[in-house]
Amino acid sequence: EADIYQTPRYLVIGTGKKITLECSQTMGHDKMYWYQQDPGMELHLIHYSYGVNSTEKGDLSSESTVSRIRTEHFPLTLESARPSHTSQYLCASSGRRTAVAEAFFGQGTRLTVV
Amino acid sequence: AQSVTQPDIHITVSEGASLELRCNYSYGATPYLFWYVQSPGQGLQLLLKYFSGDTLVQGIKGFEAEFKRSQSSFNLRKPSVHWSDAAEYFCAVGAFTGGFKTIFGAGTRLFVKA
Fold it and tell me: Which residues of chain B have a CB within 8 Å of the CB of A40?
C-alpha cells in the first residue's frame, strides 16, 4: 500500500487567491512529481524533484511553483489563482535510492477557481 | 523524444468478455513500461511493469501485458472482464531525460456492459 497523501482533496477558491497544495510521502522516496490532469485527459508533468533542494520544471509550462525542503514534503503553490488553473493535480513519488522505479500516486487535488 | 500512444480513447466490452488495450511507445533505448488504472476521482494505481526479462508480465487484478520490441507495443490484456474493471487505463514509459521520468499516454476509458 502506497503512503502518499495529498490535501486538500477538493478546493474551490476565488480568483487572485494564493493557494498551496500539499503532498507528503512516508516511503523515503527521493523523487517526487506533480502532474496536471484535465477531466478525461492525459497527465502532464509540471514539476519534479530528485531530492532535497532540487526542483525542475516539467514538460508542461505551469505558473505554479514547488519547493523541496524535506524529503517527504513537496508542496505546490499558486501565487494568484485563475480560472485557467482549474484542474486535477496529482502528486507522485518513486525510487528509494534506485534509478528506475514505478511511481506511486496520491489521490489528487481537484482545484476549481471561480 | 519519448512518447506513448494509446489509439483507443474508449472501449466497451461485455462483462465476461476478453479485453485488450493497445499501447505503442517511442523511445530510443530499452524502455521501462507501465500500465496504471485510475478510478473516477482517484489517483493512479500500478497494474504491472516491465523492466527486463520475460516479455509477458503478470499484474494485479488478473491483468497481463506483453512487450513486443519489434512492434514497439505493450498491450494490456485480461481474459474475462468484471464490471469493477470499468476505469481509465494509462500506459506509460519511463525515460532518462535529465533524470528518470514517467511519460503517460492519453488513456483509454473502459466501459463494461452487463
Answer: 88, 107, 109
DSSP H/E element including A77: strand A76-78
CA atoms of A63 and A104, how far apart (whole Å): 24
pLDDT band at A19 (very low <50, low <70, confident <90, very high): very high
Which grid cell is A57? 520544471
List the one residue out of A7, A22, A31, A11 whose CA is nearest residue A73: A22
**Do the chains contact at B34 and A102, CB–CB below 8 Å?**
yes
- B100 contacts A99? CB cut-off 8 A: yes
Closest to A35 (Cα-Cα) out of A12, A57, A8, A4 = A57
For residue B43, give the nearest of A94, A102, A108 by CB distance.
Answer: A108
Closest Cβ opposite residue B51 in set A35, A90, A100: A100
A20-60 residue pLDDT tens: 999 999 998 999 999 999 877 888 999 999 999 999 998 88
Mutate to test the interface with B, among A29, A100, A107 (most CBs of B within 10 A): A100
For chain A, give me the number of helices (H) and strands (E)?
A: 0, 11
